[in-house]
Amino acid sequence: MVDVVTNFPKRDTRSSLSSDVPPWYNRFLFFVFYKTRLPDFLFWLIPAIGYWGLPFGLSLYDGTTLSGSDVSYIAHAIGNLPLPTPAIVAFQNFASRLALHDPGSLPYLHDKTHLMFSILLCVASTPAVHTIKRFNLIVIELLEDGIPMCESDEVVGLYNNLRSKALQLRYIMFAALLGILASILFLSMYISPNYVFWWGNRQNGIAGLFFGIIIGVMVFLSVWVAILLAFGSLMLAELARLPLSLRPFHKDGCNGLAPIGIQIFWLWAVTSVVAFAIYIVLRWGYFGIERNPVVWLLAALFSLVVMPAIAVPPLYAARQNIKKEQAILLHKFGSNLNRHLHAATLALKGEDFNEATKAFSQYQHIKDIFDTINSTNVWPFHPRFATIAVISYLTQVALFVRQIIDLMAV
Description:
About 70% of the residues lie in helices and about 0% in strands. By secondary structure, the chain is mostly helical. The longest helix is centred in the C-terminal third of the chain and has 57 residues.
């Protein structure tokens, strides 16, 4: 339930709350987030270097970076440069050593699905890290502002309960298991003679061996981060269901719930990138897995159900909580309005103009409060952002369904 209050409770200071509301990660993630000394907006460098850069360097070592046509193009371009002949020949020989010359091969720089996945990982890494680092700060901000109309211990207990669940070893082991399975899949492709055309096959060098390990680490971290975000979303939803103070005149224009609203959009940003990554797999394909009906089912589950479920619960809980109390308050003030309007009407009929003026004055005063409550933003952000989110999600659904239909028709 939400209350309109004027005497807001005094909360503890940030320093005391920080110890009661620890960050939403363990020591390992603390090392990754802070010991690397990377600001949030540069965290894309980790997947850029680890997931794309390292295999790229190994492909240079293996000579699987370019195709034969690439080498021909480079050789022609270098041949037109005003360089000594020995230098031109040296450059052309060097380029030739970096290529898979079989016309049916897939060199590293031609693996567009891997490249797009790398880009999407980079794009998702910054909002994912920023979102995880903000969970405890949101709770601290709300407590300092006196938004939850309950004891601080109740809020802190709710937060720490879900935090401890999110960091349970079984979820880490689950993420590790999926990472191991992903590594096994790509290592099997590394040793299989059926994938000789692929830059990562062992007959072409060692890049695929390291790439199989990198894939496992990437899947492990991605699944673990998704689990942390899911529990963080659940925590925000539970927090939004607590008694909250309705503040129509709060500076954020969202009844003081802007911290939750901003976090919801960070969650939506991460899930949108993941959903787009799934669409890319179905659209561009990767070694035929896009034609597997099981993959379609899993893609539909994650894109249309799991991903939105991470972002929607806190939004729904916050809106419903405020909307419910808004309706209660409007009913109370509406009853008073009707009573004063009726009194003014009776006074006018009895030609008691002084009493009518007094009744209308009280009516207008209550009407101003009624209009203020009625116009209160029931979203934890500007309503136009909700429209953008809905349109983007529906577009995502339409693209996904169309791609599945196209694959079924082939």
